[in-house]
Design goal:
The structure holds two protein chains of two kinds. Chain A is α+β, with helices and mostly antiparallel strands. Chain A has 18 helices and 16 strands.
Chain lengths: 474, 165
């Protein structure tokens, strides 16, 4: 008779969820499900609000990546205003978004995943956490704290506060950047670059020890999606959508983000609140793709900054074609931190960044607007419709984490089949199943619009529906 | 230069849980502004370890659950005792003791740290404080002032409380 293992909650994620592993009569894993156990409902409760309130309202979706929601939402509102915002405003938004990529990736790598990478997947969970890393690798822990501070301070300098800043508004930004603040940010660049390079060098030296995890952590062919710039370079604010396949060949390029609905469908399942976006032309069965740092490095022609391009070249030596193992999300995250810091320096070094012309003013000129940007975890889409009074009548959000839902489910199945046997279940085995999810750095609060708390658990369930084992952390 | 840091902690949208934010707002309007760095936040994140380690004295101001609404308590934090929360579950959120301990582990520096809390009466959806908790603000401001001059909790004393006004 088949059985079931439950892991609840899955730890060191942004939010709460659980995993169920279904076993066959011999105790082998035959199915796996990643359940997101909360519903937030931002799409619904913003109906009836004035569209100009949307950026600030939407930034409340998440405490980790509020800037991305702020920016995608403001871009959707720019489209409703039918304005072309001043170039300096676009560049300042770009700086803020890059700062968020830096701080969010630093949180994911140093706070959430480094305990697994530094202390080992089988280490005692009582010690496998932030404090364990601080005790054994204080320099790396300090680098993590420093990089997160660097990104947070830029957001605070521009937006007035680190979390839920309201400075990005429809039509541009609320105020210009002062010379003093620009210089303060630039002064932090050398140390931030050193911290990132030191971590990258360590990671590259260590990566060989994770050969098994690289082979089994959501390592399969898929498509990859994200924005690229005019010359195919890494782009987080604007650009066009590109999709590549597992060989690295372009499936579709130059997609105007405003046409996203022609290419992206959304399916739902009764056992989770997170939707399953897929590439429409390939159908739901075969249309799954990944987004986020690994996808971005797989789709771009180049990063567009010197040091990141050098690292990208080395990264691509891992495999001919697209890099398929989701374990390499960690590696890609570090390269993107490097790119973010370099790009911020480049943008702030242009004297035009101090221009006072940072806002276009208009009233609603269209009834519909779409805003697309790259959040730390991948492509983020906000789409609104308004009535004659400028009140929201309909909103659709496709969140970065949601794009990866199909891949995350396949990923935990792959890892569970490799590591978990129903006859003998160790904490280290189940931690690897959780660690697969951590490579994607899902932000579940973002992707479900839920109210309240998300616990995480893993369940092993037998074929008769009997719960064999349950691991949960409240 | 090592200085003092006052951190108001909580959710300002949940009535008395926002007590720390109200105190920081009042301190910003007072003479304390020049004698201490002031910070209001929802959660204590690991990167606060750096400013904590750079401070000679850190005072956390928070709301607490308890029967006697408006009661004010002051307690020293021992960095060696550690955290009441479980860092393995949510490693980007710490409690005051955990943050001080983390600062010590990373930077080897540990400030004199204290938590000044007020027992809350209501934690619903509002930006206003309940009457007994709002009434405790003048007392808490006085205690913070005394702490910054080293008078409120003499050396060796671990804990002290004040009944509601």
């Amino acid at each position: 008779m088949g059985r079931q293992i439950l892991i609840d909650p899955v730890t060191r994620l942004e939010g709460h969820a659980k995993i169920t592993l279904h076993l066959d009569d011999q105790g082998a894993v035959e199915a796996a499900q990643f359940h997101v156990t909360q519903l937030r409902g931002f799409e619904k409760f913003c109906e009836g609000r004035r569209f100009l309130e949307m950026p600030y309202l939407m930034s409340r979706i998440c405490g980790i990546c509020p800037v991305s929601h702020l920016i995608a939402s403001a871009k959707a509102c720019d489209a409703i205003l039918a304005v072309s915002i001043p170039e300096t405003a676009a560049q300042l938004r770009r700086v803020m978004n890059l700062a968020q990529v830096v701080q969010s990736h630093a949180l994911s790598f140093f706070y959430l995943s480094s305990p697994d990478l530094l202390l080992g997947m089988d280490a005692d969970p009582v010690k496998r956490h932030l404090f364990g890393v601080a005790e054994t690798h204080p320099m790396l822990a300090r680098d993590g704290v420093g990089l997160r501070q660097f990104g947070q301070q830029i957001i605070e300098t521009l937006g007035g506060r680190r979390i839920h800043p309201g400075w990005v508004i429809p039509g541009g930004v609320a105020g210009p950047l002062s010379t003093e603040n620009r210089d303060r940010i630039l002064a932090g660049i050398p140390e931030a670059l050193n911290r990132t390079q030191r971590t990258l060098d360590w990671f590259k030296r260590t990566i060989e020890t994770f050969r098994e995890e690289i082979r089994t952590f959501a390592n399969f062919p898929s498509m990859f999606l994200g924005l690229v710039g005019a010359e195919g370079e890494l782009e987080t604010y604007d650009g066009r959508l590109r999709i590549v396949d597992e060989s690295g060949s372009i499936v579709q390029d130059g997609i105007d983000p405003l046409r996203y609905a022609e290419f992206i469908g959304e399916a739902a399942e009764p056992w989770t609140y997170m939707k399953f976006p897929y590439y429409k032309p390939a159908g739901r069965e075969h249309g799954f793709y990944r987004v986020g740092p690994l996808a971005r490095l797989n789709i771009v022609t180049r990063c567009g900054t010197a040091r990141a391009d050098q690292e990208l070249a080395e990264f691509r030596e891992l495999r001919r074609g697209a890099i398929l193992s989701s374990f390499h999300y960690h590696y890609a995250r570090l390269i993107e931190i490097l790119h973010g810091i370099e790009k911020i320096e480049e943008l702030l070094s242009n004297p035009k960044i101090l221009s006072k012309d940072v806002r276009a003013v208009a009233e609603a000129n269209r009834r519909e607007g779409i805003g697309v940007a790259e959040a730390p975890r991948g492509t983020l889409i906000h789409h609104y419709e308004i009535d004659d009074e400028g009140l929201i009548t309909w909103a659709n959000l496709i969140i970065a984490t949601g794009h990866n839902n199909l891949a995350m489910n396949r990923g935990i199945l792959q890892a569970a089949r490799h590591y978990v046997s129903g006859n003998h279940v160790s904490e280290g085995m189940l931690n690897r199943v959780e660690a697969v999810i951590r490579t994607f750095d899902p932000c579940l609060s973002c992707s479900t619009h839920a109210l309240g708390q998300m616990p995480f658990k893993i369940q092993i369930i037998g074929r008769d529906g009997v719960l064999v084992r349950e691991l949960r952390r409240d | 230069m090592r200085t003092a840091l006052v951190i108001g902690l909580g959710n300002p949208l949940r009535e008395d849980d926002g007590f720390g934010w109200h105190v920081i707002e009042r301190l910003r309007e007072s003479a304390v502004e020049g004698r201490a760095d002031l910070l209001a936040c929802h959660q204590l994140t690991p990167e606060l370890a750096a400013p904590v380690a750079q401070s000679a004295r850190v005072i956390f101001v928070d709301a607490a659950e308890g029967e006697l609404a408006g009661e004010v308590c002051l307690a020293r934090i021992n960095a060696d005792v550690g955290s009441a929360t479980r860092p393995e579950a949510f490693s980007h959120r710490l409690d005051p003791a955990g943050l001080v301990r983390y600062a010590k582990m990373l930077y080897g520096e540990v400030p004199e740290a204290m938590i000044l809390s007020v027992k809350g009466a209501a934690f619903g959806l509002s930006e206003d404080l309940s009457e007994p908790v709002a009434g405790a603000i003048p007392q808490v401001l006085r205690i913070v002032n005394e702490l910054l001059t080293g008078e409120a909790l003499p050396a060796g004393e671990m804990e002290k409380s004040w009944l509601p006004v």
